[in-house]
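Question (not urgent): is this output format expected?
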Amino acid sequence: MKVTFILHSSFFVELEGCCLLFDYYEGDIPQVTDKPLTVFASHSHGDHFSPAVFEATKAWAQRRFILSDDIWESRVPEDLRGSTLFVSPQRTYELEGLKLATLRSTDQGVAFLAEAEGKLLYHAGDLNCWVWDGAPRHQNDQMTAAYREELRLLEGRAIHTAFVPLDPRQDADFDLGMRYFFEAGGAEHVFPMHMWGDYSVVPLFKSDPNHKAWASRLMDISAPGQTFQLD
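Got this back:
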């Protein structure tokens, strides 16, 4: 299994018989066009979805799109709507070669829990513990409770690879969402995302003594285009 970091929250996953593309809006996509491609978009925000994805993946003869239902159908080219599935939060779907469950985002849209070729993958989208310095305490407490409640849906699941926000804009609370994810069970390999180009938060998280048990599972992302070969 090969994972390529494209940009921001976008990743390309190459499995033996298929490929998966998550939350693409710009950047270079590996041209593994001889394998069927499934494209995921977790919600309509411009840093997670752009109609550019339809043009960027046109080299694939076999492609399908799984989009959060907050993305307007009119943004999908008419000739591709038949190969597009719009998904809702907290639902399960059975597709050819893919089992899919969705979680409810604490911002907008969904998170994805996808199983393909025996590998379970989690892409959080904007499901995160969005706690902000200066926000009312009750608001931050409600956010924390909602996030941790949603993560309960992942408990006991043997997740192979996960993509989870580690957002430097949250200042001292940048690690909350990632920390709670690991406490809920985590994954064998966890890719930080949604870092807005500030990759310093990766070594910062890993160097925290409180995170020592998880540091080896957090992947060292430092630039777009990096590739990782996983077991």
